[in-house]
Amino acid sequence: MRAAPPSFTDSPNARSKSITTAEGRDTHGTLNQHSIGNTAFQVGVYEDKGTRRYMEDSHSFVVDYAGVRGQGFFAVFDGHAGKHAAEWCGQHFHEYLLDALRTSPSTTVPDILNETFHNVDRRLSYLCEESDGKIHSGCTVVTAFLRVEDDRGRQSFLNSPPFTPEDSRSHSSASDSHSAESGEEAGASAAIKSKKPKSAPSGNRIARALRNLGGTGSTTSSSPPTSSSPPTPPVVTPPLSCRRVLYTANAGDARGVLCRAGKAVRLTYDHKGSDKQEAKRITDAGGFVMSGRVNGVLAVTRSLGDSSMKEFVVGSPYTTETQLCDEDEFLILACDGLWDITGDQGAIDLVRHIADAQEASRTLVQHALSRQTNDNVTVIVVRFKTPSTRSSR
User: Fold this and answer.
1) What distances in angstroms separate CA 355 from CA 55, 141, 196, 339, one per listed residue?
2) The pTM is what?
3) Does domain 27-156+235-273+317-383 have CATH number 3.40.50.11320?
4) Surface-to-core class of residue 271, CB atoms within 10 Å of its CB (0-12 exposed, 13-18 middle, 19+ buried)
5) What CA dihedral angle connects 142, 247, 271 and 120, to 10 degrees?
6) Which PROSITE patterns would you find in this protein's record (predicted)?
7) For the CA atoms of 146, 26, 61, 304, what is the dihedral angle to 10 degrees?
8) What angle do the packed helices 84-103 and 109-130 form, to 10 degrees?
């Protein structure tokens, strides 16, 4: 069943789903909803349109993502040439990732992320076609998936694949409607495994399934979850012996930085026209880079959307896999409105002493504004609670 065309508001500003707090411990997969009983992490979100005429950023997070206690999904989408791509991704990217996890349980998480980026990119191209070119925007993106898994990289404590959240079940009808670019190079760390950007999902996933969800799955399509999704089961509490692994993926210059024992570790890659590797890829494809811009137009070389430039501006993400340890304090996800103003370590130093994630995100945004950033600014701070500080699950 094909999803109904999305209906956007007349406002030129991108609108993220309102942030709420669950009445009890469980959010049941609800987008942008805090859980007062969440003992695994604390998330803070703050945004400001700055000096720009319109707000073209959006954000999203899900507590106990995919029905597993302590998991989380977090993302920032930085739109350009309009709000539509960023706004749509803020509402639906998490659904596409969850659908891929559910239908391809034997695929590694980095490959799942890569697949999800391509599926979302195709969906945005479809929306552009259906709108007769009225929706032609794009967005850079940084996502993080905090996953709980056993020492084999599996989720053997699950009896079935991840469930589809309540928000996904009405995806085929109403859920497509909406409510309402500097820095240090990535720090090296032996505990962090990086994967270079890929042009397409791996063709030999099962043989390389070192990080899987157990069971046998099939390749997911670009179609979103439908109203036939199964009922939402209770949230599964994994054994205390499980480890936490942070999987990140980005396209463009939205960035993720981890604070490990006070030191900044960049988990993402800035895809810009000024990057020699990216510039070569574009010229090899028949395009050109002028003044740091693809075909003299776009400053980033990877994004979701931008259908008219898809031959050069691809949606293939850069992914990383990081096993968290007690030295890992917090994660910053932000658009270039922040990173144009401060470097990785500068951002870490600015908020490391702030225990409250919401206050930390606000501080970073206000710092960028006070230094005259000329862009929208959106920041997510995820402060991890180590096993020694977490209460018993």
Assistant:
1) 28, 26, 33, 22
2) 0.81
3) no
4) buried
5) -60
6) PPM_1 (PS01032), PPM_2 (PS51746)
7) 90
8) 140
